[in-house]
Amino acid sequence: MRASTPGWRDPRLWIGIAIVAVSVVAGARLLASADDTVGLWAVSADMGAGDVVSEDDLVVQRVRFANTARIDLYFSADEELPSDLELLRGVGGGELLARGAVGSSAESDVLQVPISVASERVPVSIEAGSVVDVMIVARPAQPGARAPIGPGEAALEGVTVVAAPPLSESFGTSGERQLDLAVPEADAQAFFELLNSLESPVLTVLRRG
């Protein structure tokens, strides 16, 4: 009769122990990797310069950074937001809220800029709170000259509509729609310089989102 091999010498036992050990190590690494993510505030929808930001406008996104120093560039979801945050530039839906994109509303340099646009060049869905781009193109000065194709170049990008009265309240029978836009002061200056440099400029408003 053959003597049985003691259990602790059975190679199958050691193989099983090795498999369990590898599984434990792999699981620990997976959990450690998951813990590398941080919760940051991101905007839930497109917003424009001059918009006041509150937690109602935000969602939490879990993000992993290769360079952890970059975390400080954004607002942590664990910290309470200041009550007077105002966007200095437009941000897209889902974009992380960068500290450099906001400022105190008390120190804001955002101006309300009025524009008038042919009604057929404004989306009918435009209303106060819409985030828009304003395109500009020069109309041909000479009769019979070929009109330019397309909306032209961006004169303003990611700005918020502050007021958008209906056509009947804008300019009577002129067929133009008036919009009041929240525009950073520097961008407003550049916009009017561009507007004044063109002969018979034509504006087109494009709605984002």
Describe the overall structure.
With 209 residues, the protein is of the alpha+beta class. It folds into two domains: 38-107, Alpha-Beta Complex (Type Iii Antifreeze Protein Isoform Hplc 12); 110-207. It has helices at 11-34, 167-170, 185-197; strands at 38-43, 58-63, 85-87, 102-104, 110-118, 131-138, 153-163, 176-184, 201-207. The strands form three sheets. The chain has a five-stranded antiparallel β-sheet. Strands 1-2 form a two-stranded antiparallel ribbon. The longest helix is centred in the N-terminal third of the chain and has 24 residues, at 11-34. The radius of gyration is 29 Å and the shape is elongated.
Average of pLDDT: 80
Please tally the helical runs, counting DSSP H or I stretches of 4 or more residues.
3
Residue windows where pLDDT falls under 50 for at least 5 positions: none
Tell me the total number of β-strands. Answer: 9
From the alpha-carbon coordinates, what is the Rg to the nearest angstrom?
A: 29 Å
Q: What class, by secondary structure content? A: alpha+beta
Protein name: SAF domain-containing protein
Keywords: Membrane, Transmembrane, Transmembrane helix
Organism: Nocardioides psychrotolerans
Transmembrane segments: 12-32
Sequence-ordered SSE layout with sheet pairings:
Blueprint (H helix, E strand, L loop, with lengths): L10 H24 L3 E6 L14 E6 L21 E3 L14 E3 L5 E9 L12 E8 L14 E11 L3 H4 L5 E9 H13 L3 E7 L2
Can you give keywords for this protein?
single chain; 9 strands; Type Iii Antifreeze Protein Isoform Hplc 12; membrane; 2 domains; transmembrane helix; two-stranded antiparallel ribbon; alpha+beta; SAF domain-containing protein; elongated
